[in-house]
Amino acid sequence: MYTDNHNHTKHFSSDAKMSAKELIDACKALGMNGVAVTEHYEGDYPHDIGESQIFDIPSFFEESKTWIEYAGDLPLYRGIELGYQKHLCAFYDDMIAKYPFDSVIMSNHLYKGKDPYFFRDGYEEPMIDVYTRYIEEMADMVEGCNNFDIVGHYDYINRYAPYENPQIKYAQCPESFDRFLSAIIAKDKCLEINTRSVDKMRKKGLSDALPDPEILKRYYELGGRNISLGSDSHTSDTLCVHFKEVSEYLSTFGFTENSYYVARKRHGEPLV
Length: 272
Prior knowledge:
The longest helix has 18 residues, at 127-144. Helix 4 runs parallel beside helix 6 (174-186). A hairpin with a 2-residue loop joins strand 8 and strand 9 (265-270). The protein has a single domain (3-270), classed as Metal-dependent hydrolases (TIM Barrel, Alpha-Beta Barrel), CATH 3.20.20. It is globular and about 50 Å long. The relative contact order is 0.16. It contains nine helices and nine strands. It is an alpha/beta fold and 272 residues long.
């Protein structure tokens, strides 16, 4: 019984495959507490991939009325996932203020201006250099932008890394992680635990696919309590993937709630 806070549909996210109906049907079959639809919005996306990486927000709110009606007793929250670039912070802050989103995820899908999903030449550099720079950019993001709720997948950079053991760890760049985690806490934002990242590490055959315990320990030590579970689903078969295992794991560090947002207000449900 969880709320999944990070999902995409084919209606407004170009890389998603599931319809809203498929998402809702799967959520009901799983007995979920609720689900957030957080469509991609990548302003000034640096690559021409033949598909728009932004969507018409008024159309999203209009069309999603029918999704909420179809969902019935299943709470369906309307969100957005913003793609960070430094020059877009003020634009995003103003844009988000104009619409009644339930939740706003701020994510960084770029490394040195390129998305490693498509362009992996950045990984030719040493792993520690790549990860340190990425976490520094995540800190820049949290410090520079304001109108968001959840910090998306801090471990996006390790998803497509070709290194022998690609898991990102606190010990690789502790000062950068401290800056990043402290910024989240100072702004009362929420750290996402993205189980799509866990799933990708599992599929690489890693035995330590769960988030690095030292990252979670340090976040808690610094005062962080807000955790958000998101499967980052683009297809209906991955909704809530690994949620039970990850929730039990998080509880061992002292975390007690999965945060979800309604009209930009944080709510909590028990992790275990």
